[in-house]
Amino acid sequence: MAAPPLPVNLMPDQTSPDWLNKGDNAWQLTAATLVGMQSIPGLVILYGSIVKKKWAVNSAFMAFYAFAAVLVCWVGWGYQLSFNVDHKLTHFLGRPNVALNEEFLFRKAFAGNFPMATMVYFQFVFAAITLILIAGALLGRMNFYAWMLFVPLWLTFSYTIVAFSIWCPSGWLASMGVIDYSGGYVIHLSSGVAGFTAAYWVGPRALKDRERFPPNNIIMMLTGAGLLWMGWTGFNGGDPYNAGIDAPLAVINTHVCTATSLLTWLILDIIFFKKPSVIGATQGMITGLVCITPAAGVVQGWAAILMGLMSGSIPWYTMMVLHKKLPFIKHVDDTMAVFHTHAVAGSLGGILTGFFAEPKLCRIFYNVAEWEHYIGLAYGLRDGRSNAGLKQMGLQILGILFVISVNIVVTSIICVLINFVIPLRLSEDQLEFGDDAIHGEEAYALWGDGEKEKFENSKNRGEVQMA
């Protein structure tokens, strides 16, 4: 039998190409898996436990389905639309193609000393979590069949545009110098705006669900939140595309900002509501994670602490105060408050990145010599380069406006088109009964749901035996 062909660029005595750094490759695969675990099982557990019991299965399964659907679309066409450096359709999109053939996957990635297969996997988990975060705004009333269509359509026509524009070296905003270290714009601002927009089109939950929507298991909710927090080590630690000096800086900044944000939110809850809310602390954790994401490896530790103070207070104010005063925001039923925790926190992080970005750290991350971009306004004022600092702030704001515009327009079009085929919202009977009506399955078999009577009847008949 003939020997199998050698992988691309390998000599007969080689097992790896000369450009491959095995340490970087191992870290990148590890970081990608940590990000994947934020979704599966992290957000699956978080969503399934933070909702009413009757929505536990549906909420968890929306996340589970999205993870699988995104992967198939990603290797089919999504990755090349988002990161085709060599061939692009426009300054907004790459040329679509599959990302599964051996010749492509063994090629050196567009950044980092590891193969394209690693990059495809790493970028997939980011795309997947974006769709799952959108689901958070739609829990408790979106038609699951409509969600099945929404996921591939939104990935194809919204996520790819923003990812290529900001993250691909050929993208127009990347070329201009917008800083989005790890997805404050591409993932969090996008998911916050898209989730809020989709929630508007889908409509609100049933009235009694809006009035009372208690978590069915707060301990499991904290488990999911913990997986989300610790998984962020890979989320921000993997974006330098190497295991160098910038990765641990991004990791420690991430955790410091998150802890500061959580504590700030907690203190505000105690001051104004007289109780330390567990759900509130979780929201503060999330806003801290989101806020530091566009800046994680390009700011100093003291800046991360200041960002945590602001991410724990400004989104708290928009959620607890402004949300109740602004009619339009109050009208839209955003189940998991992704507008505040992701859109507001992501925008805040992007602006603060434009202020705190340290030129030396930016040069390490972007691997470029000193340039007119990549300098925060604070350092521009310090170094007599205020125009460059102001320009960076302008670029950060331009990126925010672009992401908001794309997601409002594309998400609205997708929702309107889907609604022509399948109702976006569940029927009134399905809203009444939840999981059992939609999936024919329930999360818990509790005595309060009739199981007690069955148990007692079987016990009286002598059918219950102790093991």
UniProtKB/TrEMBL annotation:
The chain crosses the membrane at residues 26-48, 60-79, 120-140, 147-173, 185-203, 215-232, 252-273, 285-317, 337-357, 395-422. SUPFAM superfamilies: Ammonium transporter. Keywords: Ammonia transport, Membrane, Transmembrane, Transmembrane helix, Transport. Its main location: membrane. Coiled coil: none annotated. InterPro entries: Ammonium/urea_transptr (IPR029020), Ammonium_transpt (IPR001905), Ammonium_transpt_CS (IPR018047), NH4_transpt_AmtB-like_dom (IPR024041), RhesusRHD (IPR002229). It is a multi-pass membrane protein. Residues 26-444 form the Ammonium transporter AmtB-like domain. It comes from the Eukaryota. The keyword Transcription does not apply. It is found in: Cell membrane. One of its GO terms (molecular function) is ammonium channel activity. GO terms for cellular component: plasma membrane. NCBIfam families: amt. Belongs to the ammonia transporter channel (TC 1.A.11.2) family. This is Ammonium transporter. It comes from Juglans regia (English walnut).
